[in-house]
Amino acid sequence: MTTHQAVTEALADQRIQKNKKHWKAFNAGEIPADWPLISWIINENMLSKDGEDHTRLRRLVSKAFTPRRVEKLKPTVVGIVDSLLDDLERAATESEDGVVDLKALVAQPLPLTVISDLFGVDERTRPELHRLVGVFFDQSVTPEEAMGTFFEMWAVLTDLVATKRAEPGDDLTTALIAARDEEDKLTEDELIWNLVLFISAGYETTMNLITNAVRALVAHRDQLDLIMRGEVEWSKAIEEVLRWDGPGEYVPMRYTTEDMSLAGVDLPAGEPLLLGYGSAGRDEERYGPTAGEFDVTRQDSSHLTFSHGRHYCLGANLARMEVNEVLPRLFERFPELDVTVEDTELSASPSIIASGVETLPVRLKG
Predict the structure, then answer these.
(1) For the chain, what is the domain count?
(2) How far apart are CA 144 and CA 152, in angstroms?
(3) Contacts of 134 (CB under 8 A, 6+ apart)
(4) 292, 282 in Cβ contact below 8 A?
(5) Predicted pLDDT at 232
(6) What is the pLDDT averaged over residues 149-174?
(7) Are the beta carbons of 86 and 331 closer than 8 angstroms?
(8) Per-residue pLDDT, 105
(9) Rounded to whole angstroms, what are the CA distances from 86 to 78, 114, 211?
(10) Residue 217 sits in a domain of what CATH number?
(11) For residue 183, what pLDDT is reported?
(12) Which of 97, 180, 280, 294 is the most buried (most CB within 10 A)?
């Protein structure tokens, strides 16, 4: 599904569900166990639940993932940003040509540090977790690598839960362990699966949103100037980035539960649907003939990047907060910052799920 209308209808239609039990080919044994996207299908977190199962999980998890907890993180995020920008400037000074990788030095460590602090991941485990999440989103790996990565991540997060049970802390893992609704609580598998979802999605998407925003703003200096002069709010510019070049292209998978028509297309029951959030954001039928243009003054920058309705992303506020703290500080400190290669020369991330680049070489001063 690639149009805004089709994606919107699919997100709202109760005849389209997330549970793999509705996928005819999966139930017929036609999807191999080592398929690279298998962990996106067989998971037991909110991403693959419907109806009461989804409501129950979301209710339990949201008890831990509150806006108040995100707001309390803001001073910590500011401190992390300032420290990373110090590291960026130091690396540029030490570089022979002044070129540094903004992704590796800022966009990557910021959400990794924030999500690790949020869930109580220790310093020793963070590099390993970063490696595993990177492979998790990489569709160029072999089926064996994908399966091995999944088991490694499961082991790391199982150890995290065991540690937090033995030594509870002021973190989301501890909060998820304790989350209850009367006599109901997360099962062990539900707990680990939801950690997989929150940690991987919370890190990868924010990292790509930062790099995509920097690329967009540097390529449109006139619009960056409007923001720097205070004529356009940073929050408005970030929403336009989310619409025009959001951090996600597709999210597997949704399934038709009966023969139906969607956005004028007839679909049989039991078919998988891959929703194109990236293409929906540039749909001319929704945004007009300038849909493919980046414009921070656009009147309507609404988007589906964080999904819509009952599966709306619980981490949307955290992602927005991080990006809204790093971008102003980055460009206020380095107003001449520029990407050193043409956008077409950057290597895209090897993923149909994530939308980003492998590296982002920049020079801080003109």
Answers:
(1) 1
(2) 12
(3) 204
(4) yes
(5) 97
(6) 91
(7) no
(8) 97
(9) 12, 17, 18
(10) 1.10.630.10
(11) 67
(12) 280
pLDDT at 202: 80
- For helices 188-219 and 126-136, give the axis angle rounded to 10 degrees: 80
* Euclidean distance between CA atoms 175 and 169, whole angstroms: 8
SS3 content of the chain, % helix, strand, coil (to 5): 55, 10, 35
Joined together, the tokens standing for residue 203 give: 């890190």
Average pLDDT over residues 286-298: 97
Q: What is the pTM of this model?
A: 0.91
Closest to 347 in 3D by CA, of 362, 360, 338, 358: 358
**Any idea how long the chain is?**
366
For residue 348, the 8-state DSSP code is: B
Placement of tokens 């080919």 in the chain: 25
Q: Which two tokens stand for residue 147?
A: 């399966």
Name every residue whose Cβ is closer than 8 Å to that of residue 91 and which is 6 or more positions away in sequence: 100, 105
Q: Confirm if 69 and 173 have CB atoms less than 8 A apart.
A: no
Domain that holds residue 243: 4-363
Contact 212, 305 (CB under 8 A): no
Peptide bond into 228 cis (omega under 30): no
List, in order, residues 6 or more apart from 149 with CB less than 8 Å away: 132, 135, 136, 141
